[in-house]
Amino acid sequence: MSHRYYSPLRPLSLGTFPKPQGNEILHIENFEERQNVPEIARQAWGYIEYKEALTEIEAAAYELIPSNYISEMENLEARKREAAQRQTKSAT
């Protein structure tokens, strides 16, 4: 399985992505121009795929967005709603 990260701010080149020791880079793809990427709900210049997932800090340091960004945000919102509902129930 690979882990894909999109680069919304710049094309991928030397110095624009992390090279974690022991985490193989499987593929780098730069687009001809910025393209709309539904997986991250924004435009990107390209993507890079790693064998293992990057840490949030590694991805953020290079302003890379994971391909599962939308599902992670939806899960976060669902957890916030559930917590608010529990809080409302315990207040009554």
Note down, in words, how this protein is organized.
A four-stranded antiparallel β-sheet has the order 2-3-1-4, with no helix packed on it. With 92 residues, the protein is α+β, with helices and mostly antiparallel strands. The radius of gyration is 17 Å and the shape is elongated. The protein is 32% helix and 32% strand. It has helices at residues 56-61, 69-91, and strands at residues 3-7, 25-37, 42-50, 65-66. It has two helices and four strands; from the N terminus they run βββαβα. β2 and β3 (42-50) form a beta hairpin.
Question: Which labels suit this protein?
Answer:
92 residues; alpha+beta; 4-stranded antiparallel beta sheet
The percentage helix is: 25-40%
Shape: elongated
Helix tally equals 2
What structural class results from the helix and strand content? alpha+beta
Query: Stretches where pLDDT falls below 50 for ≥5 residues?
Result: none
How would you sum up the major sheet? 4 strands, antiparallel
What value does the average pLDDT take? 89
The total beta strand count reads 4
Gap from first CA to last CA: 47 Å
Supply Rg: 17 Å
Give the SSE order as H and E letters. Answer: EEEHEH
Largest sheet: spatial strand order? 2-3-1-4
Q: What is the beta-strand fraction? A: 25-35%
